Amino acid sequence: MFWQKEVETIGRKALEELQLKRLNQTVQRAYKNIPFYRDTFSKLNIKPKDITSLKDIQKLPFTTREDLRENYPFGLLAVEREQVVRLHTSSGTTGKPKAIFFTKKDIDQAAELIARCLTMTGIKKDDVLQNMMTYGLFTGALIMHYGAEKVGVLVIPAGPGHTKRQIALMQDFKTTTLHLTPSYALYLADVMNNQGLNPKRDFFLRRAYLGAEPYSEGTRKKIEKFFHIDVYNSYGLSEMNGPGVAFECVEKNGMHLWEDNFIMEIINPETGEELPDGEKGELVLTTLCREAMPILRYRTRDITTVIPGKCKCGRTHRRISRIIGRTDDMFIVRGVNIFPQQIEQVLMGVKGVAQNYQIILESYDQMTVRVEISRDLFDGRIEHLMSLQSEITEKLRSEILVKPKVELLEPGTLPVSEGKATRVIDKRTL
Ligand code: ADP
Ligand code: ZN
């Protein structure tokens, strides 16, 4: 099912022509209306007219989150203040927030992209979407909300938390679709399990959109199995509208990134050099349709790869893989680069392990992985679970090449998260 079949299946050549046209418009607007870009262009000794092919994008300056912060609050606005109808800020997982502005047209365009995403997963007007992301300054809930309304779905603006009420809403209004973070999905599953609820028997769920933070394929499988649903990965960031930048289709093999709205590059984060499809690197995005706040070559700090080849669904927009991690989340122990998600992937594959875990970095050569055991395994003691502990240690060692200390915890020991979870506690920098 398509929302805008023509654009979603556009041929590569036509897509690239469209990208170039929009890139030129964006560059001109940024140069004309944003002093920050005018200055960086002149430092690099370039003018908008120097961009004559898509390759020329490499002549343009990168924009970093520090640039966004330095130009806070209004510095990167490309339209008159009167044209702005909405302010969002990034959720501030890392440092102080950045202001993101939308004109009416920007909101509509962001909703349009969500409509494509949702339709791609088979959602219809008779579906009921319970939106469990945080409403407010965070883009996660509101942008999804507007897009879902555009499709004509019934949206329940539940917000996160209040798990008992969530469950009641899901039953009373026959929710078919959830939008939430993976950490909250796991928590919700735990609560349902404890209440003796069986998703297949007691609910009407068909699918969930999970995003806003990295999670592993193992976590997806676990959630799909528990709820009896399809889980679709949803990627976005406030700087680029919020959700709806890239989303999985029914093939569930990578997320189509809407290339008529964004130009993507994958670069080596250290050198800034462009990498070919299939190689892992930092995702860099340029907006092509944004009025209020065009952003050139934004360093997302998210590590991913472009999946080579065509998707069976017929969409031509290239797919990115699951986000492997953020360059900020990566930590180094004994000289090895490690992402929390690698640890999660291992833990999810071990029987007897619950969903919650925490990584403590004690020193530059010692880390501890604290992990909750599952309720069915817990009989009031954990001392006798030596074999489980060594199994986890061994599996982690073979994945990350560093032998961590593994600490088993009683179920429910670690804090639960309704939004984005904090997985790493770095005592080295405290
Ligand atoms: P903040 O940077 O303050 O967390 P946002 O709320 O805009 O700001 O979050 C965007 C970030 O969330 C992305 O850059 C990415 O790191 C992460 N993210 C969003 N969706 C996903 C996803 N599906 N998988 C992994 N990470 C994601
Ligand atoms: Zn597809």
What does the model show?
- There is one protein chain.
- The protein has 430 residues and is α/β, with parallel strands linked by helices.
- It has 2 domains: 1-328, Rossmann fold (3-Layer(aba) Sandwich); 331-429, GMP Synthetase, Chain A, domain 3, CATH 3.30.300.
- 31% of the residues lie in helices and 24% in strands.
- The protein has 12 helices and 21 strands.
- The chain has helices at 5-8, 12-33, 35-43, 65-70, 104-120, 139-151, 163-172, 182-194, 199-202, 217-227, 340-348, 386-400, and strands at residues 84-89, 99-103, 128-131, 154-156, 177-180, 207-211, 230-237, 242-248, 255-257, 262-267, 281-287, 298-304, 306-307, 319-320, 325-326, 331-333, 336-338, 353-363, 366-373, 405-409, 424-426.
- The strands form 5 sheets. A 9-stranded mixed sheet has the order 4-3-5-6-7-8-9-14-13, sandwiched between helices. A 4-stranded antiparallel sheet has the order 10-11-12-15.
- Strand 19, helix 12 (386-400) and strand 20 (405-409) form a beta-alpha-beta unit.
- Helix 2 (12-33) packs across helix 3 (35-43), helix 10 crosses helix 11 and helix 11 (340-348) crosses helix 12.
- The longest helix has 22 residues, at 12-33.
- The radius of gyration is 22 Å and the shape is globular.
- It starts with a helix and ends with a strand.
- The model has no long low-confidence stretch (mean pLDDT 94).
- The chain binds adenosine-5'-diphosphate (ADP) and zinc ion.
